[in-house]
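>> received
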Amino acid sequence: MYIKRIKLKNFKSYAEAEFEFPPPEKGRNLILVGAENGHGKTTLLEAIYLCLYDKDAIANFQRAGLGDSKFKYHDFISQSLYKEADAQMARSYEMVLEMDLMKTGTFDEQGIRIVRKWHFDHHGRYREEFNELMLYSSDKGSLQPISGEEIQDYLEDYGLPSEYSTFFFFDGEQLVNIAKQFGAGGWMSSALNKLLGIDLLKVLQADVREYGQKLYSEKAGGRQKEQLSEAERRFQAASEELARHTETLQQWQRQKQEAETRQDDLQMRLRGAGSTQHSKELIAQIEQCETETAQLNQSIQAALLALPLALLPENDIAALKTQLHGDYRRLLHEQGKEQNAHRLEEFWRAFSTNPNTLELLTPKILKDELLKRALNESWNVLFDKLPPDASDPMQHNYLDDAGFQAASDNIARITSPDNDLGSLNKEKNRQETKLAELKRRYEQQEDSLADSDRLREELERVQKELAEANQKLGGAQNSIERSQTEANRLKTEWETLQQALIDSLPKQQKAERAEAVCRLIDDLAVQLRRSKLDAFRKTVSSLHKKIAHDKQIGDIEIGEDGSLSLYSQNGTAIDFQPLSHGEKKILVLTLIAALAEITDYQVPFVVDTPLTSLDTRHCNNLVQYWMNLNRQVIILVQSAEISSDVYQKLNAQGRIGKSYLIRSQSLQGGGKCATVTPHAYFE
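>> returned
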């Protein structure tokens, strides 16, 4: 079976849209539907479910990663009407989904068209009683209506049992999150139960057991019935408490997973930002360097004042006086420049925000250091020109006003210096160079440091949330263990009373047969698992070797209870949870592919965001695997998953059957409006 056509009318963000897909050919079976998040990819997947299964679709949404399984059918349909549908029709309006399913491997085009309609009154209220399902047989393009009594037969012939749907139509990213929350073994056990129909058997078993218990209770004495009823009530209360604790645990597991994902993202972004140094650390280094430089200046000034100047030749003393005078004039000049620095800053702000400037110069040019340097040099020439008697360069830049005055006034008063002036000067120069480098780094990285500060603060908040989630998880786990112990005790008590009641009654053939059927169902469930496990294990191991490029996982074992065991190349056990997100995703996608293969159904894969968070080699391996399948593969992708370059390459090789691009825009009254462009992709 393959999907030839999907039409949506007034469904969520689609006012009206139509997708047409070609039949699959090996090596040319890929169909790409590109859309960014929130533009309508998942809506298309929901439409497939609703068209095939209607009310039964809602129960499969969470298992397919499409949303909350507690969502009610009536509420879902009520909220799915396109927001501006009432602007198109005055009195009442309808929401319509159509899908053409065709048989594969036939010379003649044979198939069916499914048409479902949901009606709303003129106030936009959903009228469930007017739901419509129409089915047409298609033979070489000719449509013939199918009568009501034959509709179910045609749906079963062309379609797929709903319990298998999540192996073929699913959100790849969300299924990995579900597997993380419930553990790979729990998710795998649930999937096997669906595959083998064990869930349906368990429902039958519960009905048969209830029937048998009712037969026994009808003959029971009043006292025994009261005891049994009370024991059952306490057991049910304990089971409900256990379910509440389990739900709380799952909630904290989800919050932990979300926090871990956000933590990984923030850490990756911090690493990608280059410098991970906190701006406070850099500022502290600058302040420390300034303090050390000031201390060195004081030491050099004291050493200079203590020099035995009287021992110098007269012409050297005169030269020293001239140098000190020039240096002092240079000091006064520099102080004047500092006092006028704010005027330069005010001029720059006025210049860079002037509308005429912004019209002529781009923000990139205004941020260019060369422009700022040219402005500073021009300002110095015009307003801060160096006096002719000032030193250039300044030799005694370690002296302040008082130091220059003391050196001039006391040049004749000599004492012996205790300091090595040359060493002090070298250390001072080193500190000044270090200070200039620190300031340069701070100016260059000011924006990125501010962004890093914000990311680091957010990371600290996330880590606190993660610590709280871990603490709450521990408490929830303890509560579950206590509740489980109590539930087991009460169940044993209830079963003991029940058996005592059974033993005290006359033989009842029907009730005993009901018990026998329940035991038979337990045995049948075990046999069903065994019948498929060998084939499933081989398929999983084979597919994982094809798709996963890393060889961390050497062997995959599935127990009869559905438990999943992973082993390295040397046979060491590997836990599922510590695996990276990408490794978990490849493993879950491999398990789903293996489940799909052993069903023997030739049904399309429709997969939403399957390649997010995977590296290039894993993406290539997955795409290669899908291209070699003899079935239609419809991939709903974001631009980051399959780039425009990769698409062009695959298309040039003749690998793409068809492509669509979905874009949406917000509506004034709320909601979105999606438009669909065929033979298009991200630019």
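>> The CA atoms of residues 24 and 632 lie 5 Å apart.
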